[in-house]
Design goal:
Length: 451
Amino acid sequence: MKKSVIFSVCAAAALATGAQAESSLADAVKNGKVKGNIKYYYINTHKEKSSGNSTAFANSIGGQLSYTTGRWNGLDATVTFMTTQPFALPNNVDTSIIGRDNAVKAGQAPGGVAGQKGFSVLGEAYLAYSRDNFSFWGGRKVIKTPLISAKEVRMLPSAVKGAHASINFEGGFRVGVAYLDAFKQRTSSEFDNIVKHALGDKTKEITGNESGVVVPVCISWKGQKNAIKVIDYYSPDFMNSIYADWNYRHKHSDELSYAFALQTIIQDSVGNADDNLAKAGSVTGGKAIKTRAGAAKLTVNYMSMAFTTAYSKVLKDDGYHDSLVLPWDGTPLYTNMITANNLFLSNYGKALGADSAYIGGTDGIKIAYRQDFGAFGFSGYSMTLSSAWFDNDRFAKTQNDLNAVLAYADAGFSIALKGIWVRNGAGAAADGTISQTPILHQYRIIANYKF
């Protein structure tokens, strides 16, 4: 969809409500609101492999500055400037908080020169309209859905370009549809065609076209204790993905509550991709996409503590590419960990790879404990400990992750210290070949001020 179409729809919707005096529009601009954040990020990643050990780190400072106009005839506009600026870099740079995706697009190694350069980008620029039970936005926007998401675990969020409309109905029902044609990965300075970003230089070979779109359709319902959501992400000549979940929440008392959730994901290649990937010699080794996955999660909250346990399963099918395809920063499984989360499979052209919980045939188990120390007189302090195991008969050894987070938050300021330890981290190439990293240690310091 062209930008002119998106903005024309917004303008028509606004005019349909009746003309306003020019001063009202001027007041909307004058009375707009500014918000943003300033973030400092330090990351240190150490890997031990049979080919040798490596350590990379980086410092970066940046954040976002956003301006939203006041509402005029149900219409408002938002622009968000984003930047990440590294400093005091070593010889071996961890570019995952700078421009890793820029390096990959330039044909360089992830730590390449292009990835070490800071950048600034207009990450959001959209018009929004709402009236009664109808809402619409069009332009560049940060969104959060299970399979296309912001993934705000690094310096900047990812964003999309397109349009979205939704209607709320009585009884808690909501129906929405979107048209997305571009995606900006969190370590990229540019918006790329959304399918081209996923498949890179293999796009035409796989889909028969140089570009493509994704059309998500969402139906959801929310009651007092239950919520159900189903989203169909359709991309012609590439892939159809169906995500569904059910969430149940119950408050037993002021001290005790619990939540239970189920989810399922179904993915299949469609059109030209279904035919081309099935051909001998394709990037997937002659296998069309067919992925089936599910997970369950239970969380119990007692006073200032929270206990979570989760299980996930991705079905194995040797006749197909059976790993989840997650090119747009979606990390949906409940067993997802800070590191074992397909973090780099959303880099340019890396869609058909997978890791840990998301590889075909993997069983995942996760346990987590969160403690809010406010109950002990340390207001704002919290700690989260989590561990996960990922097993697959394709793995030489079971993968184990351990994550520890100590955090403090007060008003607009927050700081988090994160430690990540992974043994036998597993990854799958597009053709299903499995590789494992014996040891990965990572440490992060993230300070953030929101205003």
